[in-house]
Amino acid sequence: MSGGWSWFVIALVVLNIGGCGWLLWWTAKRRPGDPKPEDTSHIWDGDITEYNKPLPRWWINLFWLTIAFAIGYLFWFPGMGAFAGYGRWSSAGEHAQDKARDDARLETTFAPFKGKPIDVLAADPTARKLGRSIFSNTCATCHGSSAQGAIGYPNLSDDIWHWGGTPDRVLETVLDGREGVMPEWGTVLTGMGGENAVDYVAAYVRTLSQPDAPLYNDYMAAQGKKLYEGICVACHGIDGKGNTTMGAPDLTDNYWLYGSSKQSLVQTIAKGRHGSMPAHRQLLGETRARLVAAYVWSLSHGEAPGAAPTNGPAAR
User: Fold this and answer.
1) 236 known member of a binding site
2) 181-276 has which fold?
3) Is 301 annotated as a binding residue?
4) 235 known member of a binding site
5) Residue 49's beta-bridge partner residues?
């Protein structure tokens, strides 16, 4: 708060308190020349008369105590402009104290799981339960309460991982986030293969997951293969298996993050995509991130190392 606004607030506070005190003092007693209490000329039904009398002394004293309390409050707590008060209380400080107390309680709760490997935590029912609770509060907004995702948000309950599904890679994703970028290739492809170039590449990409389909050898797919090998192999590889180092998806499976329709594929190739997984290191801390990563990892790897998946593979 600037100095000018601070003094403006102080002036308003002093004026209001002073005004209340003056009004209370002025009306607390009768003065010479005041009409008699019964001389108000306000009479109803012949015998109901309005009087004009000061408040009882005990009531007036309560008002003075209220004003004294207000002055003491303003000395101890902030309220007089930029003056912080002698008690040095602030809502930010109160929040910090509450947060520190809650963090200490959480630290005690999560201490047994600190630093443990993801696959070990996945075998612990208590750890999985805590991880699921954290997932519901933090991750379900994008990935859904069942972790099966939606268009543009990965399904976490299957065995397909664009950035790798090892325990360390999953933890890295939760802690530091991911930025998946599919460049816009429409202009480049049109310059290389004509106005139908994007459709050609889309047709070829569709065949990668259906190598025995009749359209594998059709004209559009054949033209698209040439264009694919000139541009797309840098990320997705000559065989279309992708690259988990950079988050390039495997094009040979039946999972399509943004949908498998021709319209969706053409838009992806021509306009590109940008998917962002936020970093949760600061929000959750490492131990809670480990717990939620263990829960997510257990959805496709089973509840214990080497166990069968609990949900089974699903298209993701």
Assistant:
1) yes
2) Cytochrome Bc1 Complex; Chain D, domain 2 (1.10.760)
3) no
4) yes
5) 43
Q: Could you tell me where the DSSP H helices lie in 186-218?
A: 186-193, 197-208
Tell the residue number behind the tokens 């976490």, with chain if given.
Answer: 156
Decide whether 104-177+278-301 matches 181-276 in CATH topology: yes
> Is 192 marked as a binding-site residue?
no
Comparing CA positions, the residue from 71, 95, 53 lying closest to residue 10 is: 71
42 is in an annotated binding site: no
> What pLDDT, on the 0 to 100 scale, is given for residue 41?
76
| 8 A C-beta contact, residue 240 and residue 251 | yes
Query: Is 95 a known ligand-binding residue?
Result: no
The annotation status of 139 as a binding-site residue, yes or no, is: yes
Tokens of 89: 């209380």
- Section 29-42 average pLDDT: 76
Give DSSP secondary structure letters for 68-128: HHHHHHHHHSS-BTTB--TT---HHHHHHHHHHHHHHHHHHHHGGGTT--HHHHHT-HHHH
Q: Where are the domains of the chain?
A: 3-89, 104-177+278-301, 181-276
Cβ within 8 Å of residue 17, ≥6 positions away: 67, 70, 71
pLDDT digits 0-9 by tens, 175-206: 999 999 999 999 999 999 899 999 999 999 99
Distances, alpha carbon 202 to alpha carbons 43, 192, 218, 232, in Å: 94, 15, 13, 11
Options 1.50.40.10, 1.10.760.10, 3.30.70.1450, 3.10.129.10; CATH of 104-177+278-301: 1.10.760.10
277 known ligand binder: yes
Tens digit of each residue's pLDDT (9 = 90 or more) over 95-130: 999 999 998 998 899 999 999 999 999 999 999 999
pTM as predicted: 0.69
- Residue 307 has a pLDDT of 44
Tokens representing 180 are: 């998946």
